[in-house]
Amino acid sequence: MNALLTLEWLAWSKGLATSAGLIMAIGAQNAFLLTQSLRRQYHWPIALLCILLDALLIGAGVAGVGVLISNSSLLLEIARWGGALFLFWYGLQSARRAWNPGQLSANATGVTNLRRALLTTLAVTLLNPHAWIDTVVLIGGIGGQYSPDLRIWFAVGAISFSAIWFLSLCIGARWLQPVFSQPLAWRILAAALTVIRQPRPVPDSGSAPVALSRHPPAAPA
């Protein structure tokens, strides 16, 4: 019994650590939530939607969609080029904000209503191929190496960190508000987001994952 609990705990911890290494990177989703949290505009609904979307994508990846994508050269090319175009567009938008002082203020108008906030969240998540690579392909690919009875623990661990991270952005932004009361701080943030994040490596489709099981192999007769 203790051995089984240990395997479940290890799978959960692996999911938590894997998610931490990917979700904490600066991206469109994190940047949008941070900006809205600093402005205190619809940040809690945005965070809850981010958590829900990550849960759906991670669940799909662990269930096998990530393997399907990583084994398709066409889908991988779409993800690579789509990700490059998306990040290029997002970098241009950040550069425009960095050089436009009128948009760099905590009091500047952000999203005007909850519907637009949620639609923007859907866009920066589902239209961003790197979000799919991080959650479905990479996290899902690692989780898929576990046996079916341990995959759920891995997925729960990955989703747990996603929830911790997005809620922490909402809470932590309150302490950053004095810093971002100056337009210079917003200019620096926008300039930092202008740097295009490099595409993440995709697991080799030619290598078959080894299933990790909670049940030890039978002893030879």
In short:
The chain is mainly alpha-helical and 221 residues long. It has helices spanning 2-23, 28-39, 43-70, 73-98, 114-126, 129-143, 148-176, 183-194.
SSE layout and pairing:
Elements: H1 2-23, H2 28-39, H3 43-70, H4 73-98, H5 114-126, H6 129-143, H7 148-176, H8 183-194
Helix pairs in contact: 1-6, 1-7, 2-3, 2-7, 3-5, 3-6, 3-7, 4-6, 4-8
Query: Biggest sheet: strands, sense, closure?
Result: none
Shape field? globular
Strand content is under 5%
Strand segment count: 0
SSE pattern: HHHHHHHH
Secondary-structure-based class equals mainly alpha
CA-based gyration radius:
19 Å
Mean pLDDT equals 76
H/I helix tally: 8
Give the distance, in angstroms, between the N- and C-terminal Cα atoms.
24 Å
| Domain unit count | 1
The residue ranges in which pLDDT falls below 50 over 5 or more consecutive positions are 101-107, 204-221
What level of helicity do the residues show? Answer: over 70%
Verbal overview:
α3 (43-70) runs parallel beside α5 and α3 packs across α6 (129-143). It contains 8 helices and no strands. It has helices spanning 2-23, 28-39, 43-70, 73-98, 114-126, 129-143, 148-176, 183-194. It starts with a helix and ends in a 27-residue tail after the last helix. Helix content is 71%, strand content 0%. Mean pLDDT is 76; it is low at 101-107 and 204-221. It has one domain (2-194). The longest helix is centred in the C-terminal third of the chain and has 29 residues, at 148-176.
